[in-house]
Amino acid sequence: MPINIPKNLPATELLKEEKIFVMEEDRSKSQNIRPLNILIFNLMPEKEKTELQLLRLLGNTPLQVNVTFLNTATHVSKNVSKTHLESFYTTFEHVKHRRFDGMIITGAPIELMEFEDVNYWNEIVSIMDWSKTSVTSVLHICWGAQAALYHHYGIGKFPLAKKCSGIYDHTITDPTVKLVRGFNDIFTAPHSRNTSVSREEVEAHPKLKLLSASSDAGVFIVMSEDEKHIMITGHLEYDAHTLAEEYSRDLAKGLTIDIPENYFPNDDTSKQPNNTWRSHTHLLFSNWLNYYVYQETPFEWE
């Protein structure tokens, strides 16, 4: 089934080249189908790259999906054109009267800041509170996961001695949980962050369940007791080359940064990294859309 996206979105042609079934809004309106309405709160600086990564995953299931992109009203994005934001994004004020079947809150390169020091924190809090009653299921990624754990469950983050960057092995604590149905006992996933959360605090919280963790990267997938909130501390959506681009960016800034672990073949930065996490990424997004959005959301919101 197709993913429905705004007309003329730059990612459209790239998705078509990858044989992802996309449908522009005009055509989708002529079909008598109840699509899933997904809100993507994109906090990443390079928004077009994140759009492509997420749309690729949302468009690879049998479910028809309508996507709405949300941007902050209280913070001006510096790495994307004003025209792009005005053409394809909206703000909370324009969607708060609506109901959404699913929502994705992305990461943001601000994890070393205290939550309350982020200049759009109050706006994010309002949106997270609104999602409790207006969204069936919310998928939180990286900093978005840390923000959810802090705001909803009182679990803070702590700085790491060095950046957690690379591809790490993960295990599943309970393979019967629908979100990780079909996962291998050990699977790989990318991480790229300077902070982490306590596994002990997550496991001790009565309203949280730890689904996956890594001996090297720590907590990975956490789900709320009511299955409404899913927190993923890594970046399953990343392309094969994303960590390489971040590594080059950090070097250009003059930062002292290690080579991403388990990433470049033989730690040779001239060699192309392999994507070893793609199948589990698609599986997780497919499971989320099927079990926690499609099968849980009402056909008609009251």
UniProtKB/TrEMBL annotation:
Keyword line: Acyltransferase, Amino-acid biosynthesis, Cytoplasm, Methionine biosynthesis, Transferase
Pfam families given in the database record: HTS
Pathway note: Amino-acid biosynthesis; L-methionine biosynthesis via de novo pathway; O-acetyl-L-homoserine from L-homoserine: step 1/1
Family: Belongs to the MetA family.
UniProt source species: Viridibacillus soli
Name of the top EC class for this enzyme: transferase
E.C. number: 2.3.1.31
Descriptive protein name: Homoserine O-acetyltransferase
Positions of substrate binding: 163, 192, 249
Endpoints of the signal sequence: none
MF (Gene Ontology): homoserine O-succinyltransferase activity
Function, as annotated: Transfers an acetyl group from acetyl-CoA to L-homoserine, forming acetyl-L-homoserine.
UniProt-annotated location(s): Cytoplasm
